[in-house]
Fold these 2 entries.
Entry 1:
Amino acid sequence: MWQVGFSLDDLLAWRSTTAVDVPVYAGVIVIASARMAMNFTIPGLTVPEDLVARLEKDRNAGVDAACDLVVGIRDSGAFDGVHLIPVARYRKWRPAWSGI
């Protein structure tokens, strides 16, 4: 089971309402560009405006935001791991998190 989002607080709020006996993974999408952010269409999920603004100035902002979210998810201990959705942008990065 997995849940996708851009906000650690939103992911943790969802996780606190979900009691299951299976591994639960947080979905992390790497937004590749401001254009992609503005055309993003997953019902109930929007790209934060501050991320769109950062993407307009820095093409790596989506990667940086995703990496920060992965670290927050790991540190929270609320999930069994992440389901990373890199789309078209990534950097060589490996967190110190077992299983990745």
Note: Helices lie at 8-16, 34-38, 49-57, 61-76.
Entry 2:
Amino acid sequence: MIPNQARHRAVLREALALEWERQLPLLRGKTITSVYFGGGTPALYDGIGDILERVKQLPLAPDCEITIEANPEESTQELLAGFRTLGINRLSLGVQSLDDRSLLTLERIHSAEKAKQAIFDAKKAGFTNVSIDLMYDLPGQTEESWRYTLNQLEELPIHHLSLYNLTIEPHTAFHKRRVETPKGEISLRFLAAALERLEQVGLRRYEISAFARPGHESRHNLGYWTARPFLGYGPSAFSYWEGERFRNIANLNRYARRLQEGISPVDFQERLPYPADLKELLAVRIRLKEGADLTLFDPLPEETTAAIEMLKQIGLLAQEGTKLKLTDRGLLFYDTVATELI
């Protein structure tokens, strides 16, 4: 994590300009479909306008989606109005919960009331595409508290929602404290309640963890799930270009120093050979509710065809014409499906 200090912002601003110039030849002749400011707290960075000035020198799609992530506690109406003036047309707010007890559990510094205020302030600032994140399976969370969050969604002017269950990773504070999260049947009831309520308020599931009003599906994330090429800028940023994925070094000063010396900031790169590339793309593509068109994955290796047939027999996959889709049960066991396909 980079401290939000003027000297660090200055280093980042210079380095991003250098990386932009370094990557610019790759973008010549391309049309930009989406721009996404994410990772950490980009809304606190005062160089967003500089970046967009460079981006706007390239051809932008008429419906180009420009998103910025922000936390409710930093999202004043003035700040959000400034983003709209810059041309940012989509806001992603890290709400997580609309229950103060759950926010305390997550050690978030905003309240539920502040989260709702940020959403309404976004509307006042002119945003017509607002996404929020919600989490379930939280320590101490009950079905009643989860429904309390879900029942507030109808009053909020949101257009997209990302839904995640909390998983406790090794070496995290929750792991060290041996915190327990809801499991099994309780977790399934949390998910079922969310699916029912989100459908009722007009947010349709279009990917395993993504819900949107018609026409507000995230173009940027759809690019990830359909293998659209993209370039990432900044420390630890990932890119996927011409079948190769690569990642910048995570340390800000080393990232900047390499660019100043005319050296690539990339510290990891990988190009999957056939058929590993096809298998991975298929596994990612079926995250979408519409499924994967198998004609785009021809020829599939024999072991993948066999895995698909097995997964169909046990009710995790279904095929409609050339479309391969996860079943309702398959949506619950996506990790198992992906493992078998890859």
Note: The chain is about 40% helix and 20% strand.
